[in-house]
Design a protein that fits this description.
By secondary structure, the chain is mainly beta. It has one domain: Nucleic acid-binding proteins (OB fold (Dihydrolipoamide Acetyltransferase, E2P)). 15% of the residues lie in helices and 49% in strands. It has a five-stranded mixed β-barrel with strand order 1-3-4-6-5. A hairpin with a 4-residue loop joins strand 3 and strand 4. The chain is globular. The termini are far apart.
């Protein structure tokens, strides 16, 4: 079984490109904390993430640098030939689902931000559900 689950922060905004056949592909690095027991401090691993098609477009439109997300996917190791003629290998996580753990930062529009901030504020006891 090849399954990877990561929680971290985006190291940069996702880069969305399109293949010749029109498929969207997004790539970004996810900074994931790694606790070092010997030093008593946290270090970060920067893990390359690749998302395809609708998920790629969703990432490009909804997440940005510094935002905390959860990525579920599979580890992929691929080889390619670099411009200098040498063979290279790269390990990356191919995302199958992404959960946004924080909302995107301010839109710059005060009215839109006020609506977003008010969402989810009304919490009703089970017996007082308003529908």
């Amino acid at each position: 079984m090849n399954k990877v689950i990561l929680v971290g922060r985006l190291a940069q905004d996702p880069e969305v490109r399109y293949t010749a056949s029109g498929k969207a592909v997004a790539s970004f690095n996810l900074a994931v904390n790694r606790f070092s027991s010997g030093q008593g401090q946290n270090n970060a691993d920067f893990i390359p993430i690749v998302a395809w098609e609708k998920l790629a477009e969703t990432c490009g439109n909804n997440i940005s640098k510094g935002q905390r997300i959860l990525v579920e996917g599979r580890l992929q190791i691929r080889s390619y030939e670099a411009n200098d003629g040498h063979k290279r290998r790269v390990a990356e996580v191919v995302a199958q689902s992404i959960e946004f753990l924080e909302r995107k930062q301010s839109t710059g529009n005060k009215e839109a931000d006020a609506v977003l901030d008010s969402m989810g504020k009304d919490i009703y006891p089970d017996e007082e559900i308003p529908f």
